[in-house]
Amino acid sequence: MAWRLKFDSDLRFVELVLSGVVTGADIHEATSKCIAMTNEKGVPGILIDSFRLELAPSIADLYSLPAEQFVQEDLSHKVLFALIIPESPKLIDYAEFYKTICNNRGWVVKLFETRKDAIELLINQ
Asked: What is the pTM assigned to this prediction?
């Protein structure tokens, strides 16, 4: 599996870890599970760790997340995303694109180079 999902009950956020090769089907399935867990737990933030991502889904797949899937699965605009950018310089543009399309549709995404900084944002919001 190219992704894993967990709930941090102490710090109260959902964490989605993406690694290796992530396909369009992977990102849609992971997003669906992540939204369901976020809604179920009533948490205000999501940590997306893409540091070990090797191959991202297509731009079209990324675009469809906030344009369609977030809306269809009722993700609150109050949820804050802290995204740890990929280690691979060629994939950083994908993170920037994801941030832009989410922010343009009303979901706030912040980019971070370290897990520590991303978590700090989530626990201090």
From this structure: 0.95
